[in-house]
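Input record (one chain):
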Amino acid sequence: MSQTKKRRLESEDGGGAEEGEEDRGGEGESGVVPAAPRRTKRERDQLYYECYSDVSVHEEMLADRVRTEAYRLGILRNWAWLRGKAVLDVGAGTGILSVFCAQAGARRVYAVEASSIWQQAREVVRLNGLEERVHVLPGPVETVELPEQVDAIVSEWMGYGLLHESMLSSVLHARTKWLKEGGLLLPASAELFVAPISDQMLELRLGFWSQVKQYYGVDMSCLEGFATRCLMGHAEIVVHGLSGEDVLARPERFAQLELARAGLEQELEAGIGGRFRFSCYGSAPLHGFAIWFQVTFPGGDSEKPLVLSTSPFHPATHWKQALLYLDEPVPVEQDTDISGELTLLPSRDNPRRLRVLLRYKVGEQEEKTKDFAMED
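The corresponding structure, as predicted from the sequence alone:
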């Protein structure tokens, strides 16, 4: 999902108060703050679909060469499985993955797209001379009816932090309803990783206020604490790209999702996650934790599995990394022990938004918790 789409989705959703919180709108005559009206699931879904009607979203995704080339290769390497078979593309967008499947030899591709971009997808299919093999079907996959069961499902369902947007639930619905037993899922699995970070860009911003005097002769170092509260003392999941130099310890995998696994839908609703433990590389300010993911495509008959990674140690993607900032920097040294647990689950006010519960302990300090959400 693009940053443009993320901003639109969250601003249209009407704020980010969690369940049990009041939106601070205008007061009524009685002086009581009225509760903001809750959107229905249908209204939230419609807003979500409308965000994908804008060309900028699809431009950013297709311009991500790492993402799109991984899908192209992941599909083409499975040509022996796809040749002469029926394929379902969940959330087809502009239709490029459906075209890849046809190029791999699929007999029929059902390109299901809930947003109005389905009209442009149909144009792409026609321009590439694939009208007979790629059928663009408008509507959510939960309501669209196919004329047959399919041999494979392809979908680019991953959001920021893997699960923002909750599109995976649509893929799992399609798997249960339309995929033949033993059918192919592209990608087939996903893994989540976490690492403690010292964000060099954030450190520069926090330290800026102590440098103002040397530029202009005015001491503004007193604002560093204010800057820390503004930049770190919030509960927002920050989407930002890091480099390997920002990572303070060996990353750990804390969750793995096999898309063919029975009961995965219930796991996602309850929250997925796991424990972690790190030993720091050296002395630095600990600013928080970074989350990223990778997905794996089966390798086909003769190829190794193909991995699409959003790690800060790999080429950058539009997903970047999902950052969880602590309330303030915590000094760590070589071999400082950091432990804790992460849980990813749907937000209570809007299940399409990602919520992350963090529990952590640094060295001998007391254990702390912080509740994050993907907000605007």
